[in-house]
């Protein structure tokens, strides 16, 4: 039997909390019976909800929280004034060792601010990044950053590549995921200085990463690489565009099959295939964005998700815990630092001092 894994839940975070959180934990427990939960929130609301699921109740502990973080709270306000909130206490549980990971469907900015303040960043990581995965023609692709860092230099992008590669390795079970930098073209001369410098570093240093160079926007859907690295501004726009396109496609299909009597007959004939299409595009299947680079596992669920989507976010948290995500990232960073040190030393040896120039 696998060892028991304890996950803390921000039971009051999300549009449909706490009902969705409790029901999602029940679904996750059926898939992963070795889970146990610390649920942070209003005990008066959580007790009757848990009573509906005796098996879940037996492996859950309610820890009362007197505050909640609203979706309208600014990160700075949440950090200063919501110290007794369900979100903050759930994160504290990871820091204190009571839980091995935390899942919240609450305010993204507040979650990032609190998690960074409480858990701190892994040594060698300047900024945490938000990473998730999405469907492609080849399967799934990880993308980061998705909004935590609007502007990034080459060192941030290289760190994202290292973390994203480990994330994909654990999530997809790949031995050596391919990595690409999102750019306005695949030619070496294209892009801003940060992207070009990051590409040069990833090509020149000796790292266990299969770097494929630059990729473009249409490569997101093609699944050209397993990991796409970009800054938070571009990544967030790309993600929201992809989500909007998926919804538009579903809308067009619905309108098409309602357009005539024969179209409705066509829908009935193709119903099973359309259900498979719907399942493949279901955003709940890909719910669970990781806050990479922190000294602890913190997973962000979509705020508007339902119980099934939240259970998938719990599943992501579980997988990252049992596969020792942070230990692997630390090992990769150690190799990176050694490689960078060797590269800089080699560059210094071949450099011609100014005073000796002809």
Describe this structure in words.
The protein contains 14 helices and 11 strands. With 358 residues, the chain is an alpha/beta fold. An 11-stranded mixed sheet has the order 3-2-1-4-11-10-5-6-9-7-8, sandwiched between helices. β10 and β11 (297-300) form a beta hairpin. α1 crosses α13, α4 packs across α6 and α7 (154-172) packs across α8. The termini are far apart. The relative contact order is 0.15.
Number of strands: 11
Strand order in space, largest sheet: 3-2-1-4-11-10-5-6-9-7-8
Determine Rg (CA atoms, Å). 22 Å
Number of helices: 14
Q: Sheet bearing the most strands, described?
A: 11 strands, mixed
Which sequence of SSEs, written as H and E, runs from N to C?
EHEHHEHHEHEEHEHEHEHHHEEHH
- Give the overall shape: globular
Class derived from helix and strand content:
alpha/beta
Report how far the terminal alpha carbons are from each other.
72 Å
Q: Whole-number average pLDDT?
A: 88
Helix content: 40-55%
Quick overview:
By secondary structure, the protein is of the alpha/beta class. Helix content is 50%, strand content 16%.
Features:
358 residues, alpha/beta, eleven-stranded mixed β-sheet, 14 helices, 11 strands, 50% helix
């Amino acid at each position: 039997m696998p060892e028991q894994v304890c996950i803390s839940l921000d039971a009051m975070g999300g549009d449909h909390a706490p009902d969705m959180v409790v029901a999602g934990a029940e679904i996750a427990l059926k898939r992963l019976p070795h889970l146990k939960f610390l649920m942070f929130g209003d005990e008066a609301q959580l007790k009757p909800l848990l009573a509906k699921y005796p098996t879940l109740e037996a492996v859950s502990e309610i820890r009362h929280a007197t505050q909640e973080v609203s979706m309208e709270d600014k990160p700075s306000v949440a950090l200063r004034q919501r110290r007794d909130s369900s979100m903050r206490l759930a994160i504290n549980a990871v820091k204190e060792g009571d839980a091995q990971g935390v899942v919240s469907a609450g305010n993204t900015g507040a979650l990032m601010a609190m998690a960074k303040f409480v858990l701190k960043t892994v040594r060698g990581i300047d900024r945490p990044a938000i990473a998730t995965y999405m469907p492609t023609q080849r399967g799934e692709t990880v993308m980061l950053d998705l909004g935590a860092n609007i502007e990034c230099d080459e060192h941030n992008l290289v760190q994202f590549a290292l973390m994203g590669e480990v994330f994909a390795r654990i999530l997809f079970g790949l031995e050596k995921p391919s990595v690409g930098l999102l750019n306005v073209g695949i030619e070496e001369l294209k892009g801003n200085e940060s992207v070009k410098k990051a590409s040069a570093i990833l090509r020149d240093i000796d790292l266990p990463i299969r770097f494929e160079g630059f990729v473009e926007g249409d490569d997101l859907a093609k699944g050209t690489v397993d990991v796409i690295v970009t800054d938070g501004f571009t990544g967030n726009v790309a993600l929201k565009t992809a989500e909007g396109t998926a919804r538009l496609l579903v809308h067009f299909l619905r309108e098409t099959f309602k357009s005539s009597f024969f179209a409705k007959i066509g829908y009935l004939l193709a119903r099973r295939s359309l259900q498979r299409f719907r399942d493949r595009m279901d955003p709940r299947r890909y719910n669970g964005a990781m806050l990479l680079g922190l000294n602890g596992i913190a997973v962000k669920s979509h705020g508007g998700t339902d119980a099934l989507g939240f259970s998938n976010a719990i599943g992501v948290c579980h997988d990252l815990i049992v596969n020792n995500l942070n230990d692997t990232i630390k090992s990769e960073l150690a190799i990176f630092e050694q490689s960078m040190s060797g590269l800089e030393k080699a560059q210094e040896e071949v450099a011609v001092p100014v005073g000796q120039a002809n």
